[in-house]
Amino acid sequence: MTPARFVETIQRRYVIVCAVIAVGLGIMFALRNVVPATYAGVSHVVLVAESGARDPSVGIVDLPSIATSTVVLERVRDTLKLPTSLIDLKTDVSATILGRSSIMAIGARDKSAEQAIAISNAVADELSRYYEEISTQSYDANVSRLSDEMRAEAARMRAVNRQMTSVAAANPFVISDKSVDDITTQIATLSDQRAAAVAQLAGDRALAATTLPNAALAKTERHEILASDPTYVATRASYGNDSAQLASDRASYTDSFPGLRGEMAKISGEANALRSEAAHAMRDPDAYSPAAAAGAAEHTREMAVVAGDEARLSQINDRLAVVRSQLQALPGTGGTYAQLSEELSAIQTEYNALSSRRANALANRAEASSLGSVVVLDRALKADTQLAGGRSRAAVAFLVLVLAMAIGAAFLVESLDPRIRRATEVEELYGIPVVASFGAKG
Amino acid sequence: MKHRITTDSHAHEFRMLRNRIEAEIHAPAVLLVTSATDRDGVALTAYGLAESLSKTHQRAALVTTALPVVNPGNGEAQAEQAPRRRSSDRLGGAERGPGRLSIVAISPERLATISRSNVAEMLAELRAEHDYVVIDAGDLPNNSFGLLISTLADAILVAFLIGRPQVPGDRTMLDTLERSEAKILGVVMNDKATIDLFLQQSGGEPAPPLKLDDPASQQRREFALNRRLEFSRLRNGKAI
């Protein structure tokens, strides 16, 4: 089939060609009004991979399958709360790699333009997330397992620490490496403190003894009480005056003086009254002696100091007894503590190893995540009207189909036409060459 | 009333055909123009070729059984539509026209009584008096004159109507040509408009329309296949 023959055939059968095209265009316009319009939203994603590094889990050729996978579409459907079935959604979503690039177009069709845009963008976003998931899936499992093991080791460490704390509380000296020396030093210190406390107690007791009531204090107390009693003082003054009068009278008179007896009887009566008043004053509950009060306060203070000394001494004695008991128990608790300490050290070593491995796993995960990722390059912003996969595209495709059918019909009629028009056909018919042609080409 | 015969519009093609014939067939020679049907433009081909030959050779003759009266003159062939002159009173006697092309028309009545010896004698005389004798033999399957000439001619040209379907006469003609010892020069393709115009100007009748529903066309495919096989055999075995 040469171009000239092609053109010749089309020219000869132009009526058929035009008829088929006219019918086809009529059908196209009829379908355009019958078929409801759909809308298509298209977003673009790009696979970003660090060149020369370790390959990511999946490549660009896998992206269309992942984008239209049930996992991604199920999440999109849940996210957008789409009422469509998964099968319908899978039919309406398409993913195509653009040439040999790393860019993939994600198209979504829907009767709603907004829905088409939303689905397209949601698929792109979910694809990006899901790609990261499957890229780091193995690392996530490893990190999770290591984290579980670290939590178990931490629990063991806390248990051992509690046991060690309990042992150390019972015998604090087990913490030290020179526990015996520490204990003996402690005992010596406590002994010194005890000796000092005993001496202090003795001194304070002696001082307190000096503040006990005595004869001199009792005399001063009696004098201050009686001196503060006005009756007693008045009686005593009267008694003194009368006694002075009697002494003067005796110096002036003989014993036979008659006034002496009366004076002597008066003085005797005043003496009795004076003793009676003294006894009364001393028995008075309100009787007060500043010296006696000061002495009592001093004694009380000194006795308090003595009590404090005794308490301190008692405490030192108790402490000394405890330390001595700890010294005796040191061989047993020390062994237990050392064993717990070794166990704790082993657990810490294991914990540190797990922590290191988990850090490496996290680093690898981060590396894997950075090596390959799907980035949303271009989000769908507007939706194109479509008719059976794109109104314009469908129109063009239908037009091409109509043209092909028209040309095909022309050649079909041509092939069914028994008339011989070309030299080659004549040569095939007769088996002899065509030497001239009048009015015919080829 | 005179009409210019429109072979001038194809003068170049006839000149090329003439050059080819002159190169392959040396004078004196008898050239037979025939076809499988009576619509293939044998007269057009024969006349155009004879006229073209007459332009370079002093002696060229056209023997026709179908062409109306033709009066060539001054190097251009012309035809008179009327009165038709059947100048075949003396078989074998060629009438020399006013130009370099002599035309001999044989009436149907004469054709009915013509014999091989008469034809041979006529051709001998024509060959002696002319360099090239072009014979319009009509359609070969239905023409006894053509059958006779085919055994006596030096070369044969086959006319073919462009756009006609295959007919049983094609097979018959090919069988006849295969039995002939003459050199098969090739096929001259004519379109219907040119033939009709030629016949109209020369006083003849336009060719009837093609009968596409001819039962013979039912055999076309089978026949074409056979011819294709033969053609392929010729290509492989002989130089065409």
Which features characterize this protein?
heterodimer; A: 442 residues; alpha+beta; Alpha-Beta Plaits; five-stranded antiparallel beta sheet; 14 helices; 72% helix; rod-shaped; B: 240 residues; alpha/beta; six-stranded parallel beta sheet; two-stranded antiparallel sheet; 8 strands; 40% helix; disordered C terminus
Walk me through the topology.
The complex is a heterodimer of chains A (442) and B (240).
Chain A: H1 3-12, H2 14-34, E1 38-49, H3 63-67, H4 70-80, H5 86-92, E2 93-97, E3 103-110, H6 113-135, H7 137-170, H8 179-209, H9 215-227, H10 230-252, H11 258-283, H12 290-371, E4 372-378, E5 383-386, H13 391-416, H14 423-430, E6 434-438
Antiparallel strand pairs in A: 1-3, 1-4, 1-5, 2-3
Chain B: E1 2-4, H1 11-24, E2 29-35, H2 42-56, E3 60-64, E4 78-80, E5 101-105, H3 108-113, H4 116-129, E6 132-139, H5 144-150, E7 155-161, H6 168-179, E8 183-190, H7 192-202, H8 220-237
Parallel strand pairs in B: 2-6, 2-7, 3-5, 3-6, 7-8
Antiparallel strand pairs in B: 1-4
Helix pairs in contact in B: 1-2
Structure description:
The complex is a heterodimer of chains A (442) and B (240). Among the domains of chain A are: 3-34 and 399-430, no CATH class; 39-135, Alpha-Beta Plaits, CATH 3.30.70; 214-301, no CATH class. Chain A is 72% helix and 9% strand. Chain A has helices spanning 3-12, 14-34, 63-67, 70-80, 86-92, 113-135, 137-170, 179-209, 215-227, 230-252, 258-283, 290-371, 391-416, 423-430, and strands at residues 38-49, 93-97, 103-110, 372-378, 383-386, 434-438. In chain A, strands 1, 2, 3, 4 and 5 form a 5-stranded antiparallel β-sheet that branches. In chain A, helix 8 packs antiparallel against helix 12. In chain B, 40% of the residues lie in helices and 19% in strands. Chain B has a 6-stranded parallel β-sheet with strand order 5-3-6-2-7-8, sandwiched between helices. In chain B, helix 1 crosses helix 2 (42-56). Residues 67-99 and 206-240 of chain B have low confidence and may be disordered. The chains are: A alpha+beta (442), B alpha/beta (240). Chains A and B meet through helix 14 and strand 6 of A and helix 1, helix 2, strand 7, strand 8 and helix 8 of B.
